[in-house]
Amino acid sequence: MEESYKRILIILGLAVAFLGFFKLGSKIIRSSPESNLKAGITDILATSTPFTKLTNLVTSPMTPGDITMSPSLAPSAKVTSPMTPGDITMSPSLAPSATSVPTPLPTAINPSKTPLSTKAPTPAPPNTPQTSMSPSVTPATTPTPGVPTVPPTVTPSPSPTGLAVVINEIAWMGTSASANDEWIELYNNTASAVDLNGWKLQSTTGSNPDPVINLAGLIEPFGYFLLERTDDTTISDIAASQLYTGALNNACESLELRDNGGNVRDFVDCAGSWYAGDNTAKSTMERVDLAQPGASQSNWASNNGFVVNGHDGSGNAIRGTPKSRNSANQ
Fold first, then answer.
1. Between 283 and which of 13, 43, 259, 303 could a Cys-Cys bridge form, CB atoms 3.0 to 4.6 Å apart?
2. What share of the chain is helix, strand, coil (3-state, %, to 5)?
3. 229 and 199 in contact (C-beta within 8 Å)?
4. Which of 19-28, 139-148, 303-312 reaches the highest mean pLDDT?
5. DSSP state of 278
6. Does residue 78 sit in the same domain as residue 174?
7. How far apart are CA 44 and CA 53, in angstroms?
8. Measured distance CA(75)–CA(68) in Å, rounded
9. What three-state secondary structure class fits 79?
């Protein structure tokens, strides 16, 4: 019986001690909760490990070297300073550890004095891809083994045909200095020089045609070839391309131009009289259109007396256009 009383007294004593201890601990926590919390957080930050959540509330005194356990039963933090009931420990993040930077406790915000910001955050500008321009490369042609390479076919330029070289002007009446100072002009319609060696300009009128001129030399691209009768004084200030002998009939002559192959390249017909020209004014007979046949009477006209070039043996103006554009072709 006495033993039972002793046990009851011991239990009551322990209960009183526990109650007193509990009241004392509560008073300490209420009197200085921030200091206890800072001490606990300071101890935890000393481990240099990032923490993510509260794990355990200390319910009994702990000494340096004790290990706290997180709810996952994994060791959470090593105690480095004495802790009392009511202190809080933090468990480290499961992510790789990094040096923790102590963060000061946030200052309490009074909602009645600090309005919340309603400004929407500025979105980050989207990434604009940069377009890189590279030069276009044309791949080289690779020859197929065993297949011979055929060189490109070169097409030669065709020889002048048709109205490549034409009879352009005829001074069948001579000049004011002399009726014998006759001259004839040819023109090259092409962009290439033409070799006149072997070509022939001749009359086809009568049983004994005259003149017959065997041509020689080059006529330049889009150039003139001046034929002067007997000497180079017919047109005193323009050099002749070639001299010839023979006389043109003032009534009419039919003339033809043949190349070195005997082909007729141009022809001037005679219908009882020359197509144009004036014996009194000494105006020449000029071709109107270089691309039209010389056998057409409408393709010839007399020099107009305004567009002229050169002087005769006496210094008089030539009523014609030797080695220049015809007045009828302006």
1. 303
2. 15, 20, 65
3. no
4. 303-312
5. B
6. no
7. 12
8. 6
9. coil
- β-partners of residue 62 are 83
194 in helix, strand or coil? strand
| Pairing status of strand 224-229 against strand 242-244 | parallel
What mean pLDDT is predicted for residues 271-300?
A: 95
Question: Which amino acid is located at 87 in the chain?
Answer: D
d(CA 115, CA 72): 40
Residue 62's contacts (CB-CB under 8 Å, 6 or more residues apart) are 68, 79, 82, 83
Q: 27 vs 242, which has greater pLDDT?
A: 242
CA–CA dist 41, 45 (Å, integer): 6
The whole model's pTM is what?
Answer: 0.53
Residue 35 φ then ψ, to 5°: -65, -40
Q: Please, what sign has the CA dihedral across residues 58, 59, 64, 66?
A: negative
Residue 312 near residue 235, CB atoms below 8 Å: yes
Using a pLDDT cut of 70, give the percent of the chain over it: 56
Residue 244 forms part of a structural domain: yes
Where does the pLDDT of residue 68 fall: very low under 50, low under 70, confident under 90, or very high at 90 and above?
low
* 107-161 tens-digit pLDDT: 444 444 444 444 444 554 444 444 444 444 444 445 555 544 444 443 333 333 4
Please classify residue 24 by burial: count the beta carbons closer than 10 Å to its beta carbon, then call 0-12 exposed, 13-18 middle and 19+ buried.
Answer: exposed
CA distance 239 to 221: 18
Q: Rounded to an integer, what distance in angstroms lies between the CA atom of residue 261 and that of residue 197?
A: 11
Strand (E) or helix (H) holding 285: strand 285-287
Check residues 251 and 59 and name the one with the higher pLDDT. 251
In a domain, 119, yes or no: no
Q: Are residues 169 and 88 in the same domain?
A: no
| C-alpha span between 230 and 183 (Å, rounded) | 10
Q: Is residue 103 in a domain? A: no
- Structural domains counted in the chain: 2
Q: In the prediction, which pLDDT does 142 show?
A: 54
- Parent domain of 322: 161-330
The amino acid at 65? G
> Bridge partners of 243?
228
